[in-house]
From TrEMBL:
Domain PAC residue range list: 395-447, 678-733
Keyword Phosphoprotein appears in the UniProt entry: yes
Keyword Transferase attributed: yes
Molecular-function GO terms, alphabetical: phosphorelay sensor kinase activity
Domain annotation PAS: ranges: 319-391, 602-674
Superkingdom assignment: Bacteria
EC id: 2.7.13.3
Catalytic activity reported: ATP + protein L-histidine = ADP + protein N-phospho-L-histidine
Species this chain originates from: Corallococcus terminator
SUPFAM superfamilies (alphabetical): ATPase domain of HSP90 chaperone/DNA topoisomerase II/histidine kinase, GAF domain-like, Homodimeric domain of signal transducing histidine kinase, PYP-like sensor domain (PAS domain)
Protein name as catalogued: histidine kinase
PROSITE patterns xrefs: HIS_KIN, PAC, PAS
Amino acid sequence: MNLIADLIEANLEILVRRFVEETRGWESSQGLKASEIITTLPEYLRTVALICRHGPTPERLETRKRLEEVHINLRLRVGATQEDATDEYTLLGRLIPRLWDDAGPEHKPAASDLQCLFQQLEDAMDHVVVLFSGYSMEDRQREKRFLRQLDALAPQALGAHEDAQARLQPLIDTVIRALEAAGAELFLVERGSTMMVAIADPVRDVPHAGRRRADARGPSFLGRVARSEEPLVLAQAHGLTDAEREGLGNEGWSTLLGLRLWPHGELMGVLCVGFAEARPVPPQTKRFMETLVEYLSGILDRALLMGKLHEAHEQLATSETRYRLAAQAASDSVWDWDLTTQEVTWSGGVRDLLGFTPEETGPTADWWVGRIHPEDRERVEHGIHAAIHGTQARWQDEYRFLNRRGDAVRVLDTGVITRDAQGRGVRMVGAMQDITARRKTEAGRELLLQEAQTARVQANTELSRLNTLLHQAPVALGILRGPTHIVELANARILELWGRTLQQVLHRPLLEALPEVRGQGIQKLLDGVLTTGEPYVGNEVRVRLARAPGGMLEDAYFNFVYQPLLGAECSIEGILIVATDVTDGVRARQRTEALAATLHASEERLRLALAAVDMGSWDVNPLTGEASWDPRFRAMLGLPAEGELSLAEAMQFVHEEDRAKVEQAMAEANMPGGTGEYACEFRVRPPTGDGAKVRWLSGRGQVHFRPDGRPARFVGTALDVTERKREEEAARQRAEFERYLVGIVSHDLRNPLNAITLGTASLLRRDELNERATKAVLRIQASAERAVRMIRDLLDFTQARLGGGIPVQCQDLDLATVVRQVMEEVQMNFPERVLQTSMPGHEARGCWDPDRMAQVLTNLLGNALKYSPEGTPVMVRVQGTEREVLLEVHNAGDPIPPDMLCRLFQPMQRGAPGMDLTTRSVGLGLYIVQHIVQAHGGTIAVSSSKEAGTTFTVKLPRDGARQATRG
């Protein structure tokens, strides 16, 4: 006997009539006759009844599939959608259960029969998807397999100078295999242009495959693909004009299929797939192509972003190195030699030193070698190449160099070598200084010593004094930062000129460090430079200084140059000061112009490099906490757009849970003797009321140390990595969910299944059912029911966690009827307990799923009975208002602890320890209850206290579920 089959066969006409009545109002059925709506429905229902009664034999399944195919094809002809067709089988899944609702609970089929019925309807809906889209389960599995292969082959980073052909070709080969094509070509847009360049080409013998280009705005097939949102097919690729074929490399393909790469709403490139034979491209192939290209776009987007990030870090390191070395050199002519490309650039000081303009110096080192005096050339060239190919970090030599007039100028040339991880020299920055006058002086001094032997002591004393002055001759460099003119120093020469110690000057306002110069016009000069942005040059400026502690003021004469330092958007970030004692004879003006130009160019390149990858930057004084932040970093951190802000104030914008981690990373970077490297990922919380969400930043920085080991400067960059962190969190949650299921299946389901096995074995060992065998059967039944409940909870949990919510089948329902039925069933299982109901005369009707409502009440009642004393009643109250119905379940007993109350509806949560193990569950009951209530548009809350007991309150809108279904 099968109740489902009996009910279907006995009520076949009723089912067909109700089906027509329900679908008559659908848009897809407008204008159709009743026979066109019914089609094969009667015969289909009879076949389903036979399957439910006698089982799914191959013949019956084939008949059912044939009837479904006829019905679905008729729906295709009248313009119905895939959703329209699946809705019809969903409607049958609601109409058939109404048959036993009308007949009474005694006609309700068993769970196994229901499973058989719903399996037939689910298979029918899968059949709809296949016939409408041509995308079967096998297609989806195949798609997943190739996506995993793309993931495994994805490059972590892709730089602009890397061999993209070698890195991306395995990905393109995977796409070719996935689409069973003859080949494919990938074109990526060049940065800052509309040209697309061929990156990967499976045809290895095509010459210069990586140099082919196509205009994304042109008339070619590739250009049309770049402007199309949908895949484009070219059925006949032979005989194309040159304009149409622009960029394509293989002329043997007959059919072309192209789709653009479009991450973040911007064109990244085009993927073109070729087929050797002329053929139509089915919809499922286009859909598969869209999935593959979308996945490939994400892979390339991440790889290119990481490549840009690496390049930006290298550019920053290069700019910082040049800035530091130029400041250290502080010489007349600065040169920069790229040892990988052999290109050499010279600063403007080469004009004053040798008479050449930078444009006349030549792009390589050959020009420099050719101007070395012939007698010195071999020695100098051998020495500098030995330094480059060796291990030393510094090279220095003195030689004669031919200036523009052909005169030999004696120069002192010094260079610092930068090496890569393998120790190879990749860059050399240096300075050339004119020492002709110095050498003439030294030569004259030697002559004086030979002619005046009687004055040896006096001459030696004079020589010592002159040497001291000569070693002090290089320019003194200071930097004033910000409107308060905080002083930083690049060398100690300025301390000697001012008569101050490092502690008296460093990180103090200028007029605090030199109070005696107040009123001498220096402040006015500095303000003028900050206001106008124009440099100031003063020769033989008189300054009254006290050069000794407590000493008298004395006149000192200096050559001063105040050069403004420009930052982002041409704002003035500080002033570069070059001061020399006029007795030194150093040409401060020329040296300062060369140095200032170098510093400005370096800072400009630094700013452009940051803007290229949308990164922010900071510059912090670790000793004082004073800092400057560029506009991009201020926006990332949520800092005010303008105004001074110290490091301590900025740290308040870092998420409080990450603040200690950031401070620890900075403390380690500031440790003397360390590498000075800083790396930390942290969250930032915008100001209260901003409305923005928490963001993740990835910071990288470098601390620069002074000669005494103290940190002098902390510079770094930040990149917004919020999206990456969100993806990592989603992956973590999925992994956690999988662990949950593994633990549940391996533990909670093992005991009931063992009980079933042991009970069955005990029953089979006896010839007839005696008392003991009867008890074994009862144990089997109890264990099986428990296993079914667990499996049901697990399925609901899976649906709620991964499927977007628990599905409900709503209908007009009197909640009071459900309450009475559930109360009767629970009372039979707990005859010793007192169950009370309170249902005032208000109507409790609404649009809800009866089975799900029964599941909600059963779980809440079971929970109340489990955690309340045996002598106390459990109360169920139903109360209706105009718009909603309230369902309350109350029990006495100990209150729920506050720490448990806040996580009561989370999965895998159980009550107090020590409960009876026979009632133990998987801890999903309340979690599922909450999701069922939310699926009906309602809410659930709990209150618990020692005096009032515990009450769960469910609020259900009368038509909330109906509105959700219509939406």
